[in-house]
Design a protein that fits this description.
The protein is mainly α and about 180 residues long. Helices cover about 75% and strands about 0% of the residues. Helix 2 packs across helix 4.
């Protein structure tokens, strides 16, 4: 009877094949390209999303409620249609997280990525709420705007990757052993 009995393979322990690495890098390249194009053509994307949301909300009879909601949003938060902004931000952040997932293999570092993104989103919501409670405080809206512009951009991805590659941030025992 053999000493080593194979159990179900764990993706973290499987050796990566050149084909798997090539496919991953192609996907990384495509995601970078899509993120770049989303940044370059954001005005056109917002125009499309605004029109699409207007049609959807009209079709379900919620266009008046959407207009009232939009009127309640201070210009310091956004000048664009709120559903379009939320859709764009969610799409962009999802692509950023997918890109980071492909590039960050350590489970502890991935957990930190998720915690940082969630923390920044929570801080954004909190600052907007404070701005609203403080009687439309312009400083709060400006700060929240800078925070969301930071999050919906390439800087968090680049910063996290540089820090992780430099050995900063948490590392699981598996990652530390592989680095040696």
């Amino acid at each position: 009877m053999p000493k080593h009995v194979a159990s179900s393979p764990d993706a973290r322990t499987l050796p990566s094949t050149p084909r798997m690495n090539t496919g991953r890098w192609v996907l990384v390249g495509l995601l970078v390209l899509v993120l770049f194009l989303a940044g370059v053509y954001d005005a056109q994307i917002f125009g499309f999303l605004t029109t699409a949301w207007q049609k959807v909300l009209s079709a379900v009879g919620l266009s008046r409620q959407a207009e009232l909601l939009q009127q309640g949003v201070h210009g310091g938060v956004t000048h664009r249609a709120l559903p379009a902004v939320l859709t764009y931000a969610a799409f962009y952040i999802a692509l950023c997280l997918l890109l980071l997932r492909l590039l960050v293999h350590d489970p502890l570092q991935w957990r930190l990525v998720l915690q940082l993104y969630a923390g920044i989103i929570a801080a954004y919501v909190l600052i907007v709420a404070i701005g609203k409670l403080a009687g439309d405080a312009v400083w709060a809206y400006r700060l929240s705007r800078h925070l969301i512009d930071f999050l919906v951009g390439p800087l968090p991805i680049a910063g996290l990757l540089v820090l992780f590659r430099a050995g900063l941030g948490p590392q699981s025992t598996d990652s530390r052993m592989q680095a040696k």
